């Protein structure tokens, strides 16, 4: 019995769909650019809020896929944006993030986020929504 030669068939190139830089928000998909614009901040401030570089943000806005960690962070920011828009007019959110606030010991809400203390913002949002005095 003659041995059959095994010739490896070339594998077909399969392209997996890359994750699109879209964040699922309460009202449906939202792009990174859309989220940044809804927050009312420029790319530099969005970099500070998100904790990612301006280069990464520019890449995502140009359709580069997000990692799972970055996608999770964008979802968190989308949720924060919706909550802030519920207690103030959306067009003032960006200005509010960049303005020192006595409720945060004179820090800007942006600085509170940078310090990893976003729970302070959520507590403020809860108190405003529920009418609970601080």
Number of strands: 2
Q: Name the assembly state.
A: single chain
The number of helices is 7
State the major sheet.
2 strands, antiparallel
Beta-strand portion reads 5-15%
What's the helical proportion of residues? 40-55%
Distance between the termini: 89 Å
Radius of gyration: 22 Å
- Main sheet: which strands, in order across? 1-2
Q: What number is the mean pLDDT? A: 84
Order of helices and strands: EEHHHHHHH
Structural class: mainly alpha
Overall shape: it is globular
Low-confidence stretches: 12-19
How is this structure best summarized?
By secondary structure, the protein is mainly alpha-helical.
Task: Provide the descriptors you would attach to this structure in a database record.
two-stranded antiparallel ribbon; 134 residues; 51% helix; mainly alpha
Describe the structure.
- The protein has helices at residues 32-39, 43-50, 54-61, 68-87, 93-97, 109-114, 118-130, and strands at residues 22-25, 28-31.
- It is mainly alpha-helical and 134 residues long.
- α1 packs parallel to α4 (68-87) and α4 (68-87) packs parallel to α7.
- A two-stranded antiparallel sheet has the order 1-2.
- Helices cover 51% and strands 6% of the residues.
Could you outline the blueprint of secondary structure elements for this entry?
Layout: E1 22-25, E2 28-31, H1 32-39, H2 43-50, H3 54-61, H4 68-87, H5 93-97, H6 109-114, H7 118-130
Antiparallel strand pairs: 1-2
């Amino acid at each position: 019995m003659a041995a059959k030669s095994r010739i490896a068939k070339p594998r077909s190139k399969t392209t997996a769909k890359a994750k699109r830089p879209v964040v699922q928000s309460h009202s449906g998909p939202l792009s990174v650019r859309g989220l940044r614009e809804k927050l009312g901040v420029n790319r530099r401030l969005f970099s500070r809020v998100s904790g990612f570089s301006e280069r990464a943000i520019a890449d995502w806005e140009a359709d580069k896929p997000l990692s799972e960690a970055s996608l999770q962070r964008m979802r968190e920011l989308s949720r924060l944006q919706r909550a802030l828009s519920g207690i103030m007019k959306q067009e003032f959110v960006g200005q509010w993030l960049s303005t020192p606030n006595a409720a945060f010991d004179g820090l800007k809400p942006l600085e509170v986020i940078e310090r990893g203390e976003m729970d302070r913002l959520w507590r403020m949002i809860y108190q405003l929504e529920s009418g609970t005095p601080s």
